[in-house]
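Re: your question from the hallway

Yes, I did run it. Sequences:
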Amino acid sequence: MNTLMEVQNISKQYKTKKVLDNISFSIYGEEIVALVGKNGSGKSTLLKIIGGIIDSDSGAVTRHVQSLKIGYVPEITPSHVLFTPEEYLFHMGKISGIPRKPLQEKIDQLLEIFNMLEARSTRITHFSKGMKQKIMIMQAMLEETHLLILDEPLSGLDPRAQNELEKTLLSLKEKGYSILLTCHETKLLENLVDRILLIEGSQVKQLESFSEASNQNNQIVFEFPSHKSLDSVLSFIQINQMRTLNNGNQELTVTVKSRDTDKALLALLQHEASIKELMPLNSKKEQFHTHF
Amino acid sequence: MMSLLHYQFSNYIRTYKYLPPFFIFILCTVVNYAFVPNPILDSYSFTSTLLFLLMGWFTVTIFHAEDEGQKVITILHAKGQNVYFVTLYLICIVIGFCLSCVSVLYPIIIGAFGERPSLWHIILGFLAHFSLSILAIALSAIFTRELVKNRQNSWWGVLSILIISLAIASLKSVILQVKGLLWLLPPVHLSLEMMSSDDSINVIPAGFYWQFIWIFIYSILVIWLYFFILNRKKKM
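Structure:
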């Protein structure tokens, strides 16, 4: 993977409070990185430093791509934008210095990607928060953006809007955009994110992402005739709970490694077991919430 | 820069926040010249003072026209906050220029003066209006949201500084007792003193030009102070 930028020894202090202390990490091309941490841990500050909105006290953000373009979507979605999406994107594009013709083509393309063609002539003030958030992402993509910075993109959205925005972000990921975002929504981290960076105590550390860390184990609940032997599957499973049912059968709750699940299920079915439930175990997810 | 100017102007027009100060300006100007004949420089003195106060209103509404969150995005597209705020100052100056022209030309067009104004009256009248407009813009911008976080404090600050600036004219004798203090205070009194000249003035004394130049220099220094504080705040 090619390195887009390197954050080197960034420190930032607000009055007496040190928010970031010698933070260093790299952002690579075509990856989605999530910054997580408790409220006030310095996530937004770090995004603003990377986006060039505020300066750090020390350290540097080194860009490894010539004329690296960064699109920034702030945490607070503007509520009073007095233009239609088309007018608004046109103004923002012109301010960025994009010539009229390619700008119009880009606006049409973005309106199509974000399913906003029908709403192109409606004033943004009349939009829902989810639609406004989409417009904010669109403005960040007007220029040929290498890196999109999204500060709490799902914050304040209802579940439906969150789902829609997740789909949009997924499609952007598939199109090869690099995205750096902060979020609290585990679902988004689970489905999209390649790397998770935790800011804690003014320091940053990399966490295992859900895709790597989760779903290592599955839980199987099954009913089993009491006269049958479980010996052939005991090597795959770990019994958590066992109880005798009224019909004389045993109900077992077991944990099995993901890679052994198919073998275990096959063996259980061959031994006349009846599978009641199969669910992924995600202990990392539980641990993860302690970071917010 | 032109695209940013176009955007800021379109946005301000759509907010309709210009309507109250604009209609007060029109109303006061029309009422002031409802009865004829009127003295030339006295009338210009009144309308320049009116414009001084109203430009404070225009300035705050122009600087606060854009949504706070949107402002961050626009600055990013403009690739720098200085150019962003320069365009806001330019919009204020254009409005100040247009209203100065209206203030000077309207009474001439409707024949509201007792005598036909000379070129010197017109130049003096325009300089009085435009210099006070620029001064009001410079002073008011210091109290806008970039430097004063609380909205209410913005309005109190603007009202206070504009009224104090006007009050200095009548407190001049007291202020003169503290050496050098008068130079630090907003020089509204210079314009008011010049405009209290008699209508029979045949030529503008050279000292008047220097006094107007000082008002412009003072305004530029205050605008520079705005950018100085703004850039310091970004680093903090």
